[in-house]
Design goal:
Elements (H helix, E strand, L loop, with lengths): L1 H6 L4 H14 L3 H12 L3 H17 L4 H25 L20 H19 L4 H24 L5 H31 L1
Helix pairs in contact: 3-7, 4-5, 5-6, 5-8, 6-7, 6-8, 7-8
């Protein structure tokens, strides 16, 4: 539905309203510094290192090479899905961002989809761990909230329209669910064999 709206350019008014609301009610020098800091945690530079460290942790601490491969695969495939969709839709980014503009396309938001994939994967790993249930809930809520804040930062900084971010969240969440379903199905089959 969001994609249909983007293709028919019907979302422009809603996107403009959201952007104007954010810029009129939230923008300040201090908030901009915070949003630049937040948005970094779903940047390509950060996520490459984060996925590699998580894969190393899987091998060294968990002694689970399969988990390391799954970690790298979800990161790589999530990036490729988003890059393919950006090239398919070729939506131009908003004019006049608060930071240096990017050269690639806007729809869907790579920060939103990658953030949901990475931090959602961390939530999955937390629920697979032995930590107590209240801690699982607390960490999960914090990670989901942080993912949402990353999406907000993209609108705040003028790097994306709201519809780009919502689509990024949906695509990231859908891929996370599909990927984990495939991984868990394969793990169950290998246990039966």
């Amino acid at each position: 539905m969001i994609t249909h709206e983007v293709l028919s350019e019907k979302e422009e008014t809603a996107d403009q309203m959201v952007s104007e609301f954010v810029h009129h009610h939230f923008v300040s020098d201090g908030a901009t510094e915070i949003m630049i800091f937040v948005t970094y945690f779903a940047s390509k530079q950060f996520l490459i290192i984060a996925f590699l460290l998580l894969a190393l942790w899987s091998i060294i601490y968990k002694k689970d090479k399969r988990l390391a491969i799954e970690t790298l695969l979800i990161g790589i495939t999530g990036y490729l899905i988003n890059a393919t969709l950006k090239e398919t839709f070729k939506r131009v980014r908003p004019a006049d961002p608060l930071i240096d503009p990017l050269r690639n396309f806007s729809y869907p938001s790579g920060h939103a989809s990658s953030g949901i994939i990475f931090y959602g994967f961390l939530v999955y790993l937390i629920w697979q761990s032995d930590i107590n249930k209240p801690a699982k809930y607390i960490f999960s809520i914090l990670l989901v909230a942080f993912s949402l804040l990353i999406g907000f930062s993209r609108i705040y900084l003028g790097m994306h329209y709201a519809s780009d971010v919502v689509a990024g969240f949906c695509i990231g969440f859908a891929w996370l669910v599909i990927f984990l379903w495939i991984v868990n199905s394969l793990r169950k089959k290998s246990c039966v064999s």
